[in-house]
Amino acid sequence: MVVVLRRDVPQEKIAPLIRWLEDKSLSVRVFQGQEQCVLGLIGDTAKVDVEMIKSLDIVESVAAMSDPFKASNRQMHPEDSVINITSPDQLEHAIGGGKFALIAGPCSVESREQLTGVAKAVKAAGANFLRGGAFKPRSSPYDFQGLGEEGIDLLLEAKKATGLPIVTELMEVHSLHLFEEVDVIQVGARNTQNYDLLRELGKVPNTILLKRGLAGTIKELLMSAEYIMAGGNENVILCERGIRTYESAYTRNTLDLSAVPVLKTLTHLPVVVDPSHGTGRADLVPSMAFAAAAAGADGLMIEVHNDPKQALCDGAQSLTPDQFSETAAKIFKIREALGL
Predict the structure, then answer these.
(1) What distance in Å separates the CA atoms of residue 336 and residue 86, rounded to the nearest whole number?
(2) Closest to 244 (Cα-Cα) out of 254, 236, 234, 235
């Protein structure tokens, strides 16, 4: 249920209403907009006398919520969420609410030289975040699985060298202690419905980048975000990374760009697009990145490798630093042309 208060209601009148609602075993989420305050009620709202609430002089309207996702719902939080991350050089890197972010770097961390070189190159091209896999979920147990803890150490070194906040994937709860200094913890497509993991991520201060499942619906993605937010962590970024469909001969996945405007309607959370995994082909990444930017995405996550042919993971979908620089420049021009 959503309770919209009248404009410019003083806090001393809001607090008693919140206490009264909480006494009914309801969780109350407060969104303070520029002009109005919205109260989101989560729990058994059947206990609430709706007509009584409507009659209060501080209440403008009361509306029921039919969607099962509550905390991530735009009804609960009408304005876009903006997630701010402070880098080592004390610069703010923001995403959401008109703040666009480029997240770039190699699929997997392979060496200090490789990672630092790519990090400096993508930063020069306009990237706001450095991505890189330390732990890699692979379909085959014989494929490169990542450097693990050493990979995280190298990411932290690159973070200090460039000032870029880092994004890397967590696969298992027992590894969570290694991610304390990681700015954005990525939940991969295979773990989108690992609810035990999501519950634990609701308890940490890190921002969470939540990818859509391999064949997940939009509703399932939002419900996975709900697990994290219900635990108290509201710093969640959603990622459209392509879904598995009948097509497999010419693209790795089917990139569902319609999910961007749909999600922007349903939720206040930032939405980014990963055209690298969405297509599996480097030659398709620029055009899909342009389309995603035009569709209103809050950011893009693009794989960049200094030598894709020699990459230990996903070289076929990785851009070179020069290709990324050219792509990034065009993305910025598209956003400028559209007034974004």
Answers:
(1) 25
(2) 254
